[in-house]
Amino acid sequence: MKAVVLGAAGGIGQPLSLLLKSNPLITELSLYDIVNAPGVAVDLSHIATPAKVEGYLPADDGLKKTLTGANIVVIPAGIPRKPGMTRDDLFKINAGIVRDLATGIAEHAPKAFVLVISNPVNSTVPIVAEVFKNKGVFDPKRLFGVTTLDVVRASTFVSEIIGDRGLATSVTVPVVGGHSGITIVPILSQSSHPLPASLTGDARAALINRIQFGGDEVVKAKDGAGSATLSMAFAGAEFAGKVLRAAKGETGIVAPTYVNLAADSTGAKALSGIIGDLEYFSAPVELGPEGVKKINGLGSLDDSEKKLVEAALGDLKTNIEKGVSFVGSSKL
Ligand SMILES: NC(=O)C1=CN([C@@H]2O[C@H](COP(=O)(O)OP(=O)(O)OC[C@H]3O[C@@H](n4cnc5c(N)ncnc54)[C@H](O)[C@@H]3O)[C@@H](O)[C@H]2O)C=CC1
Ligand SMILES: O=C([O-])CC(=O)C(=O)O
């Protein structure tokens, strides 16, 4: 399995590459950035795990060399937020970065699984899809927006409320919708532990708000030096590991991820009752050898959760249209 990280020298890219170097399923790790990727690669190459590591810059066909033969490509390239910014404020710069990297993937590794971390995820995933469609290589089963950090945060915050941090690694709460503000929808009623579902009033509202705006906590604490990097690297490596395990034939792996709903028309139909005709949504997805095997429905939601999903739809629609039309207009 050849894994690629695009944006590998950055705050997420470096620890993510470290974690991927530690994944025994990966035999080759190829790193790309506009700065410092060869240095990061040599550093990682001394670690005593099987993966062979290479690093490239744009010069001398670096992107092509990085991508050729890739099975999985993870994209954390792009600028992070500073205090006062929304994820959508990153669109101006990151949309072009993601479009150009997607063009390279479509040309040199069109069959790879593509995992998009670069924000705003709600828009950057449609950008990748539109580029792939233009190149005639789009397979919706192989494209994923990484929303795992929301799931990781939910596990952590719930374990804190329960008062047993040991549960952080096992308690799960599905988080669906998208990856920004109110598009992040925690389904507390479906937590694997009974406590979240039993919360009411301010305690329930506070937990939902913390999961939705957890990213802001980090942006504020870093005070101008960026956003979540280490927790994102952990989440990204976890999700990439799941995609790889499913590709190797392991069954029963389900994770929320932001996908193009054409990946599973039956699943999309089941969702349409609550999300209408949205083209993208993060729902629990069963992974398989070809990527998306099945998009699971949202299960039974209580009335307040239905309202949270409804509240997410407007922003999601706008974010998706913005990504789609960006690629459309860049063709002119
Ligand atoms: N999906 C999620 O849950 C999360 C997403 N993010 C997003 O991830 C992105 C990266 O964040 P950080 O690593 O903190 O930023 P960073 O600035 O530390 O690193 C970004 C890296 O991308 C590289 N880069 C820029 N343009 C490039 C290009 N054209 N080709 C290849 N590499 C390029 C930069 O040189 C830099 O090394 C941001 O957009 C951030 O908002 C961050 C946290 C969570
Ligand atoms: O908050 C940000 O900008 C980075 C991010 O997506 C997160 O931490 O969830």
TrEMBL record:
UniProt KW NAD keyword: yes
Pfam families found in the cross-reference section: Ldh_1_C (PF02866), Ldh_1_N (PF00056)
Domain named Lactate/malate dehydrogenase N-terminal: residues: 1-145
Record GO terms (molecular function): L-malate dehydrogenase (NAD+) activity
Record: residues binding NAD(+): 7-13, 33, 94, 117-119, 232
GO biological process, one term: tricarboxylic acid cycle
Residues in Lactate/malate dehydrogenase C-terminal domain copies: 147-326
Catalytic activity: (S)-malate + NAD(+) = oxaloacetate + NADH + H(+)
E.C. code: 1.1.1.37
Active site: 179
Keyword field: NAD, Oxidoreductase, Tricarboxylic acid cycle
Keyword Oxidoreductase (UniProt): yes
InterPro entries in alphabetical order: L-lactate/malate_DH, Lactate/malate_DH_C, Lactate/malate_DH_N, Lactate_DH/Glyco_Ohase_4_C, Malate_DH_AS, Malate_DH_type1, NAD(P)-bd_dom_sf
One cellular-component annotation, GO: cytosol
Binding sites annotated in the UniProt record for substrate: 81, 87, 119, 153
Record PANTHER family: MALATE AND LACTATE DEHYDROGENASE, MALATE DEHYDROGENASE, MITOCHONDRIAL
Protein family membership: Belongs to the LDH/MDH superfamily. MDH type 1 family.
NCBIfam families named in the record: MDH_euk_gproteo (TIGR01772)
Subunit structure: Homodimer.
Name of this chain's protein: Malate dehydrogenase
Organism of this sequence: Coniophora puteana (strain RWD-64-598) (Brown rot fungus)
